[in-house]
Design goal:
The protein has 238 residues and is of the alpha/beta class. The protein has a single domain, classed as SGNH hydrolase (Rossmann fold), CATH 3.40.50. The chain is built from eleven helices and five strands. Strands 2-1-3-4-5 form a five-stranded parallel sheet, sandwiched between helices.
Amino acid sequence: MKVLFKRLSYFLLVLILALILPAGVFAGNPEKKFVNYVALGDSLAAGWTPYGQDGLGYPEFLKDRFEQSQYTVDFSNFGFPGYTSTDLKNQLNREDVKASLRDANVITIDIGANDLLRALKINPSTTATAIYHVQQNLNDILYKIKALNPKAELYVMGYYNAFPYVSEQEQALLLPLLDSLNGVIQSVTLAYGGTYVSTEKIIAKKFEEYLPNPLDIHLSTTGYQLIAKEFWKAIVSH
């Protein structure tokens, strides 16, 4: 009888503790969060500064956000200054890049602006052709990535207005081109089940701070941090 009473008392004690203590007290150590993050893109991914120096791009700041949220991060950044969509498509043939993409959980991409910028510089009449090539190349890029890793989450960036200091007349010519480029990027991204990350409006709000050099298209540190924040918002809401 005493043994039965002791067992009943022990059972009641455990039941009371289970009700009044947080569930985590009885749980084992929670599984540590892990992400394998791969960044692809041009000078914005590479982190080129507004004054022609190598710095930290938005992928580094996005990695920081993962770590601040208690993730262990395996991080590879293949961003390269000056890359066009053709360059990125060819980069995907490298064995080290393919190996990283196969293991990735999260992949971010920004590509296409240099295609348009080169067309504007060499022959403005070819901008429509350049945007069409971005569409075709991005389609090939996402197809290759999905073939390597169909489960990875894809986040593709839309571009901001990199020329906010030029005249209204020039803006009237440039902004429709930006809209066309972003429209192509968004449509191809969505076709492959990816997430399109818009940046145009947030950069425009304080472009003097985020684009401090009127003669350069690259972002300040705070600009890159802001882009990383937009990617993070898309990731946590996915």
